[in-house]
Each structure stands twice: as C-alpha cells, then as structure tokens.
C-alpha cells in the first residue's frame, strides 16, 4: 500500500486521475452544497470516456478512490441521469480494473438497501440501479446473493414512489439475466412470487412494464424451476395484461407472452436450478399455442378486442422469432405453424378486415420473412394447398392469396412446383362465389404477371378472347 501511494504521489496525474479527484471533491463538499446534476453528468461522461483510454495500471491506482466516490454520489440521492452514468462507471471500472472488488461493492449496496429508509427514495433508487448494473455485468460471480437481492426488491415494491418500484424490478431483471439459471431455486421462487403478486398489477404503468420485462428475463434464462403449471399461470397473466389501457404495457407483455410460450414448447431449453428438489422435470407445454395464442385471438371481444388482437399478433411474431432464432428450429418448420395461424380465420365467415390484417402480419413477419429461398418455394405450394382445401373459409383464402403474392414478390420468380398447381389454386379462386376472394385472386394474378409474365400469358389471352366474344355478342344483340 505504501508503495502504491508513493507511485501515485510521484507520477503526473492522468486525465482519469484528475477526473477522479474532481469527483472526490464534489462528494466531499456535498454536506455544504448539494452536487450540481449538470456538473456531475458532464464529469461522469468525461470519466467514462477517459476509462476507455486509460491503461490498466493507471486504473488500478485510482480504482478504490473512484469506486468510493461513485458509491457516495449514488447514496447522496443523485437524479436518474446521474445515477445511471454513475452505475455504468462503477461497473466499467471494476471490469477494467481489479474485479475482485465486485464482491465488496455488491455486498455494501445490498446492505444499504436492506437498511434503507422510506424517507430516502432517491438514495434507494440510486443504490438499486447500481446493484442491478453490477449484476448485469458480473451476475455469474455473485449468484449467491440473488435471493437476498430478490428479497430486497420485494421490500422496495412497498415504497410509495413509483420510480423506486420501477428500479426494484429493473434491478431484479438485471439480476436474473446476469445470474442466468445458476442460482438457488429459492431465489427464482421468490422472484416469481414478487412479479405475479406485486409487479403485474401495479398501479403505475412503468412498473407494469418492468414486471413484463422480468417475465421475459425469466424466459430468456430458461425458466429455472418453472413447471407446466407455472408456465400456464404466467402466460395467463400475460394474456390478461393485453387488456391494459396503455399501449407500451400491452407491447411489453406481448413480448413476454411470446417468449414464455416459445420456452414452454422447447423443454430441452428449460433450466433446472440448484438446490434441494425435487423439481418438476421439463415438459412441453402441450396445447400452449392454442390455449394462450389462438383461442384468446378468436375469442377477443368487447371494446378492447382490437387491442387484444394486436397484442396477440405481436406475441405470435415474438414466438415464431424465438422458435427460429433462439431455439434454432429450421425455417421450413415455420410452415407448420402457418396452419395454426390461418386456422384463427376458420370461423371468420363475415370477413373482419382487422382480424385478417393481424393474421397477414403474422404470416409475413413471423413466417415468410424468416424463411430462406428454398423454404419460401415450399411455402408457396403449402399456400396453394390451403386454397384448394374445401374447409378453408373465405378469410383463409384471402389471407393465403395475399401471403402468396408477398412470397412471390420476395422470391422474384414463380417456382416450378407452384406452376403445377396454378390452375387449381389462383385461377380457381377467380371464380369463387365470394367477391372479396375473387378480387384478391385478381390481385394475385397481377403479381404473377409482374413476377413471371409467361406464367399467366395463356390465361390473359384466354381472358381477352372471352371479353372480345362477349363484346361481339352484346353488339350483335344491339343490332337485332
């Protein structure tokens, strides 16, 4: 220690050292004068920039002083922009310096939060944000503290200030994502209870959004300790939350719902936590798609039916993206889900434009856009089969035709395998008894003509011949 002080005293101050000294000065004078938020913000911004350029040897010289100053600034009750930068700086300096201090810093923050008073909400929020940031970067090293952190979050949820409750759940989200599924089972049980009991139904919409993000975090880390009953329960909460009056809340829960159902459909990705069992063995969420995505969509009614359908539409897309991108299902398998999606239109005999638009969005973004060219070729044949199905409702045929047009435009050509069923699909739809199906079939023919004129050349010639014959027939009748 003596040697380190000697080196510090005899080496010119670097830019980083100067900034740390300024930060210490601000904190030291806080008892006489409250720190200027703008000055602190600028100083912390410069500090983060200097950290990127500073060699590790110099950082080690100033690390302890910098950490102490940042900690003091946070528990002084800094405003949100300042405490965000201070939290980032704390994680950055520990990462670039001696990371052994993560244990003492996390412990001191937990102690402060455990002993915190309700009369100091700004201080509590600052400490919670910093602890969450440390978990985000070093969670795997401090998993043993996850249960205590979750208990602290439960305590903070009883504060009257919504920003404290929000920070509590954001801290929990970072802690869950940082630790993954490697913490004790009791920590995840407590987190599950906290989210469902306090977070989802909170009166502040920002807190409800934070709760939804916690649910997504649980799905992202493999749902440690969750059985089929818990998956069903969480998904039901999410579906109910799609009736919320705030759009951003509905969107957040829609994403969480899609992530949870995707995990439930992939038991091999579900994580078993540490600790005393027994834990339920991973099982597939049988009927999860129908129960949590399809049925609520078809049964949506009332003044918020459109909001619910839009939310479920987003859930479908998030589900399909997770299936393909996270759980690495082949893109050709997305075609199997297309039938479930189109089935939501089977009972739509009166044609609801909003319902059809939602289904089209799912098919386009969730299925077609994720497919490679070979899978898109196969998908055109699949859509043709749906057009030939006698059980397909008019809305299903319209959705199939519109999706077919989009897929053909994306491909830029008409696959040979689709040309073989062309007459029995698109051409047959032109004479369908339902007018909107005929119109959509005509639009699909136009797309075919744009993509591959030779594909519809003979059909156009036939149509022109018929029109000429009809015109001559009308002219002959007038003469008579």
Overview of this structure, please?
The chain is mostly helical and 480 residues long. It has a domain at 330-480. It is built from 23 helices and no strands. The relative contact order is 0.05. Residues 1-7 have low confidence and may be disordered. InterPro entries: ARM-like, ARM-type_fold, SWEETIE. This is Clathrin/coatomer adaptor adaptin-like N-terminal domain-containing protein.
Keywords:
480 residues; mainly alpha; disordered N terminus
User: Which residue ranges are poorly predicted, with pLDDT under 50 across at least 5 consecutive positions?
Assistant: 1-7
Mean pLDDT: 91
Q: Report the β-strand fraction as a percent range.
A: under 5%
The run of helices and strands is HHHHHHHHHHHHHHHHHHHHHHH
Radius of gyration: 30 Å
Q: What structural class is derived from the secondary structure elements?
A: mainly alpha
User: Tell me about the biggest sheet?
Assistant: none
């Amino acid at each position: 220690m003596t040697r380190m002080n000697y080196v510090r005293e005899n080496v010119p101050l670097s830019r980083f050292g100067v900034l740390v000294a300024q930060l210490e000065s601000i904190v030291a004078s806080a008892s006489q004068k409250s720190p200027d938020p703008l000055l602190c913000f600028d100083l912390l911004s410069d500090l983060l920039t200097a950290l990127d350029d500073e060699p590790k040897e110099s950082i080690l010289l100033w690390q302890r002083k910098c950490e102490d100053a940042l900690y003091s600034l946070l528990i002084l009750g800094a405003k949100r922009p300042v405490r965000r930068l201070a939290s980032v700086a704390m994680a950055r300096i520990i990462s670039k310096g001696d990371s052994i201090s993560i244990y003492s810093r996390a412990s001191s923050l937990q102690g402060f939060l455990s002993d915190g008073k309700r009369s100091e909400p700004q201080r509590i929020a600052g400490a919670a944000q910093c602890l969450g940031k440390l978990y985000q970067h070093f969670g795997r090293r401090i998993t043993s503290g996850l249960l205590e952190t979750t208990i602290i979050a439960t305590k903070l949820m009883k504060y009257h200030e919504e920003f404290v409750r929000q920070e509590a759940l954001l801290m929990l989200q970072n802690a869950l994502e940082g630790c993954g599924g490697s913490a004790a089972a009791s920590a995840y049980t407590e987190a599950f209870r906290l989210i469902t009991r306090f977070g989802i139904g909170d009166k502040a919409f920002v807190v409800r959004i934070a709760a939804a993000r916690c649910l997504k975090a649980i799905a992202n880390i493999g749902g440690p300790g969750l059985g089929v009953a818990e998956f069903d329960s969480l998904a039901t909460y999410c579906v109910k939350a799609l009736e919320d009056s705030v759009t951003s809340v509905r969107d957040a829960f829609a994403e969480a719902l899609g992530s949870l159902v995707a995990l439930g459909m992939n038991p091999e990705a579900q994580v078993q936590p540490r600790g005393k069992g027994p834990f339920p063995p991973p099982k597939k969420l049988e009927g999860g798609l129908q129960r949590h995505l399809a049925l609520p969509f078809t049964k949506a009614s009332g003044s918020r039916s459109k909001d619910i359908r839009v939310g479920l539409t987003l859930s479908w897309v998030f589900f399909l993206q997770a299936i393909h991108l996270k759980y690495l299902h082949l893109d050709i398998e997305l075609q199997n889900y297309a039938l479930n999606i189109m089935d939501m239109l089977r009972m739509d005999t009166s044609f609801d434009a909003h319902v059809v638009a939602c289904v089209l969005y799912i098919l386009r973004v969730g299925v077609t856009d994720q497919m490679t060219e070979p899978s898109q070729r196969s998908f055109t044949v699949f859509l043709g089969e749906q057009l030939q199905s006698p059980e397909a409702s008019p809305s299903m045929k319209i959705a199939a035709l519109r999706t077919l047009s989009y897929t053909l435009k994306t491909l830029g050509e008409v696959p040979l395998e689709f040309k073989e069923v062309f007459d029995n699909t698109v051409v047959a739809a032109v004479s369908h008894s339902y007018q909107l199906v005929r119109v959509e079939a005509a639009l699909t023919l136009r797309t075919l003509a744009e993509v591959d004129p030779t594909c519809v050349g003979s059909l156009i010639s036939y149509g022109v011949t018929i029109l000429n014959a009809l015109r001559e027939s009308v002219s002959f009748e007038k003469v008579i």
